[in-house]
Structures are given as structure tokens and as C-alpha cells.
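Duplicate of #3305? Posting structure anyway:
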């Protein structure tokens, strides 16, 4: 929209770079171009403002497929006014000289023209396409047909309109049909999800089984190693016992040898001692025998009374000290009898 200000009965217009301004006065074109700025009188001026920038026109329309299913088409057409003079001559782009507002609705007219033209070509394509194909490949087919149809439409160049681009965002069926179409896909997705879940569970079970087998193998290996350890310990114990037994045998043999040697030495010493003692005893016996023989030879020439006297003296020397002697009558009688008998023998 142009910016118009008032000054003492005059008006000043300042246009935008994307707006083409045409100023007529008394049927003559005084100003023509984008982004103009000039003074004018409101009573004699005829102004028109044509936008020359690219504009987006969003459209949504309904169509029916070959299998009688209603679909909604969402599309966007990008266009521009390439010939402002022609467009202002075919459509009402005039503005109020006091406010700068369009007096009509030229852009709505352009939108209606483009929407109806695009809808006509889209309906022609979808009417020969089943719903399934329309949902799969219909977007490209409809876009190409709309672009081709708008490019071949004679009214657009005649109005100064140039189509820049056509985009079709979606072709959607009715909600009930869409839910019905989604059901098999959802079921398949659910089946795939369940399959993935089962496979994941199977993998988890397989992993758990592998882990359990590894643990069991580890336990078996540990038990085997423990068995080897026990065997090794038993072997070591047997070796140690054998070594101890051998050492004890060696010690016992050494001790026995030493004992035998000591015994032999002791026996030899005992034999030597016994021989020495026997020799000494024999020599003593011989000395005693010689002494006794000499004693007997000495006493053989002595009379019996002297021998008795010597015997009594020797006996007295060997008797212990006697403080008192008690002689019973019987003993005294026996002694006297013996003395008497002895005296008789001596007298005889």
C-alpha cells in the first residue's frame, strides 16, 4: 500500500520498490514505475499500484479419484505480475488518492483465477487415478499437470501474470478412509515391531544361554583346575612324605650305624674291661691263693691250740663292740657241753 501524506491541498505519494505506480491525469500517463515518489492533486489524479514481487498463493481443494474416493489436495502456486501495465488494464489496481488503499480486490481475483485453473487440471488427473496410486504417485503427477496447465493457460499472459513455481504438499483422503488405509500398515508395523521384539528377546535369551554356558564352562574349568590342584597337592604331599621318610630312614640308618658303632665300641670296651677285670681277678686270686697257700704253709706247722687261739683272736677282732651279753641257761648248757667235749678231745 502506497504512503500518501497531505500538504495544503496537495498529496505526496511514496511508493515501495516492489510496487509499480501508474499516475494518470486527464487521461495522460505522468508517472509509471516502481518505487516512485511525487506530488499530485487528489481531484485530478488517477492512481494504480501493482505489486511486482513474488507472491505465494496457498490453495486447498477437494477432488474425487477414479474409485470414487474423496481426497483433499494442498498446493501452493508462486506467481508474479510481469506486466504491470497490462495487469492494471485488465484488473482494478486503482487506489484511493487520500488513503492509498485499493478500491477493489485485485489480488483476490488473481487468486480465484489461479485456484480455479489449478483445480481444473488437478481434478482431470485425479479423476483417472485410483486412490492408492493417487496417494503414492499423485503428488508428482498433480504438480506436473498443474504447472503444465497454468503455463498453457492463455488468460494468465493476457492478464500479465507469470507462474514461477507450483508445489503440491499433500493429497489426503477422508479421515475414515485414511484410518482404514493406516490399519494394514499399522498392523504390519506392529507385526514387524513384535517380530523385532521376539527377535530381541530371542537374542537376549541366546545371550543369556551363552553367558550361562560360559559360566558353566568356567565352573567346569575351575573344578578341573581345583582337581589338578588337589592332585598336585597330594603328589607334593606324597613326595614330601617320601622325602621325610627317606630322611628319617637315612637318620635312622645313621643313628643305627652310630648306635651299632657305639655298641661295638662299648662292647669292645666292656670286653677289654671284662678281660682286664678277669685278668685282675685272676691275678688277685692268684695272689690270694699264693697268700693263702703261704698262710696255710705257715699255720701247718703250728699246733691246734695255737690255731684256736689265733682263731679266737681273729674272731674277736672282727666282732662289733658288745656292751652286754645275755646267755640263757640252754645256751650256757650247750656251750659248757661243747667245751667239755672239746677238753676231752684235747686231753685225748
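Output from current build:
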Amino acid at each position: 500500500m502506497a504512503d500518501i501524506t497531505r500538504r495544503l491541498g496537495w498529496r505526496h505519494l511514496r511508493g515501495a520498490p516492489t510496487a509499480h505506480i501508474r499516475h494518470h491525469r486527464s487521461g495522460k500517463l505522468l508517472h509509471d514505475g516502481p518505487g516512485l515518489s511525487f506530488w499530485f492533486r487528489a481531484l485530478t489524479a488517477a492512481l494504480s499500484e501493482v505489486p511486482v514481487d513474488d507472491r505465494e498463493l496457498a490453495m486447498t481443494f477437494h477432488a474425487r479419484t477414479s474409485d470414487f474416493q474423496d481426497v483433499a489436495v494442498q498446493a501452493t502456486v508462486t506467481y508474479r505480475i510481469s506486466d504491470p501495465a497490462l495487469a492494471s488494464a485488465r484488473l482494478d489496481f486503482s487506489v484511493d488518492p487520500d488513503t492509498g488503499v485499493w478500491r477493489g480486490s485485485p489480488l483476490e481475483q488473481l487468486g480465484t483465477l489461479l485456484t480455479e485453473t489449478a483445480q481444473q487440471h488437478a481434478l482431470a488427473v485425479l479423476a483417472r487415478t485410483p486412490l492408492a496410486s493417487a496417494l503414492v504417485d499423485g503428488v508428482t503427477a498433480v504438480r506436473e499437470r498443474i504447472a503444465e496447465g497454468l503455463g498453457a493457460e492463455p488468460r494468465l499472459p493476457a492478464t500479465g501474470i507469470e507462474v514461477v513455481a507450483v508445489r503440491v504438499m499433500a493429497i489426503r483422503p477422508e479421515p475414515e478412509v485414511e484410518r482404514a488405509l493406516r490399519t494394514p500398515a499399522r498392523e504390519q508395523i506392529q507385526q514387524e515391531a513384535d517380530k523385532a521384539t521376539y527377535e530381541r528377546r530371542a537374542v537376549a535369551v541366546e545371550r543369556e544361554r551363552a553367558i550361562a554356558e560360559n559360566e558353566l564352562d568356567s565352573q567346569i574349568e575351575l573344578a578341573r583346575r581345583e582337581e589338578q590342584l588337589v592332585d598336585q597337592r597330594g603328589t607334593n604331599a606324597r613326595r614330601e612324605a617320601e622325602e621325610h621318610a627317606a630322611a628319617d630312614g637315612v637318620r635312622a640308618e645313621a643313628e643305627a650305624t652310630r648306635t651299632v658303632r657305639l655298641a661295638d665300641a662299648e662292647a669292645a670296651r666292656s670286653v677289654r674291661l671284662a678281660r682286664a677285670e678277669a685278668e685282675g681277678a685272676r691275678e688277685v686270686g692268684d695272689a690270694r691263693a699264693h697268700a693263702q697257700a703261704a698262710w696255710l704253709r705257715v699255720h701247718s706247722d703250728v699246733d691246734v691250740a695255737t690255731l684256736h687261739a689265733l682263731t679266737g683272736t681273729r674272731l674277736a677282732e672282727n666282732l662289733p663292740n658288745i656292751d652286754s651279753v645275755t646267755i640263757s641257761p640252754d645256751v650256757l648248757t650247750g656251750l659248757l657241753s661243747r667245751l667239755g667235749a672239746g677238753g676231752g678231745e684235747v686231753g685225748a
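Confirmed duplicate; merging threads. The helical segments are 84-90, 106-126, 131-152, 155-159, 175-300, 304-318, 329-347. The first strand starts at residue 3 and ends at 7.
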